Amino acid sequence: MKIPFTKAHGAKNDFLLTWSKEAPTQNLREAAIAICDRHTGVGADGWILISPPVTKASEYDFAIQLFNSDGSFAEISGNGTRCAAAFVLDTGFEKADVRLLTGAGVKRLRMLGRQDLTYTFEMEMGSPELTPAGPAFQLPLSSGPRDVTILDVGNPQCAIPVSDFEFDWLGVAREVEAHAHFPNRTNVSFFRRIDDHTLEARFYERGAGETMSSGTGSTGAAAAAVARGMVSSPILVLTPAGPLNLRVESGVYSMVGPAEIVAGGEFYL
Fold first, then answer.
1. What is the pLDDT of residue 192?
2. Adjacent-strand bridge partners of 179
3. CATH ID of 129-250, from 3.40.50.300, 3.40.140.10, 3.40.50.10890, 3.10.310.10
4. What does the pLDDT read at residue 133?
5. Nearest partner of 216 among 259, 159, 258, judged by Cα
6. Residue 256 forms beta bridges with which residues?
7. Over the chain (269 residues), what is each successive 10-residue block's mean pLDDT?
8. Contact between 121 and 111 (Cβ < 8 Å)
9. Direct distance between the N- and C-terminal alpha carbons of the chain, in angstroms, rounded to an integer
């Protein structure tokens, strides 16, 4: 079977995008693993299937379904959702505002600019929800308890404040992702305060591993830092792939970031 795809990235967090009608009708997990493999497939952090609305009266313009590179389902990716918005605009959708139905509900994206195949969007990220434990929770790890913030930004997040990244944060992230405290696994971010409006962060995404940036991870890190009194809006999150900008109004987070279409073709499954 030939699977058409478009490849895009949001701050080097890369995704493959396919119309649902052109994807396999079964064994999607296995297909996601195959197409996302960086050695034997096209290579990506995730695969996104896109469908038109069921009726013209729907509250969304398109629905998206996201699979991680390990074949698991993900509720939402901030960077991936921007890539999906770029995909539908590139294929002829004529509105600057795009409403996408994700596993975390409808998200509205507004195109702020476009240069060739590079788009800039402002995206509604929603209101992060902290667990009843509050912004600080002592998570037991093999190396000893670690101060973390556990929250939901449409997907599960564990945000960990650090003073630097000069330690085996990938090893810690792997342990946290699969920790018994998170029966469905969790995304992990490490963040350090630069100043009142700036954070630096690293990301380990559930089902994908280390990523160069993360929209939901940046939102989780920012929300954790706000809850701890470390920063205030507007917030610049410095990722290894470049900055993402967040603002907070009445507890609702919005993010400005890029999405660039870089390739297209067919994958032979």
1. 98
2. none
3. 3.10.310.10
4. 80
5. 159
6. 122, 245
7. 97 97 96 98 98 85 97 96 98 94 97 97 96 91 96 97 97 97 96 98 97 97 98 98 96 97 97
8. yes
9. 5
User: What's the confidence (pLDDT) of residue 150?
Assistant: 97
pLDDT the model gives residue 184: 93
Please tell me the distance from the alpha carbon of residue 234 to that of residue 31, in angstroms, as a whole number. Answer: 40
| Model confidence pTM above 0.90 | yes
Contacts for 82 with CB less than 8 Å, ≥ 6 apart: 10, 109, 119, 121, 123, 215, 257, 258, 259
Which tokens hold the place of 138?
């002592």
What pLDDT score does 238 carry?
98
CATH number of 2-124+257-268: 3.10.310.10
Alpha-carbon gap, residue 227 to 199, rounded angstroms? 14
Q: Where in the chain are all domains bearing CATH 3.10.310.10?
A: 2-124+257-268, 129-250
Task: Please give the pLDDT value at position 57.
Answer: 72
DSSP calls for 143-155: T--EEEEEEESSS
> Among all chains, which residue has been given the structure tokens 């409006």?
197
Helix axes 215-227, 78-90, angle to 10 degrees: 140
For the record, the structure tokens of 9 come out as: 């990235």
Q: For residue 203, give the nearest of 235, 247, 158 by alpha carbon.
A: 158
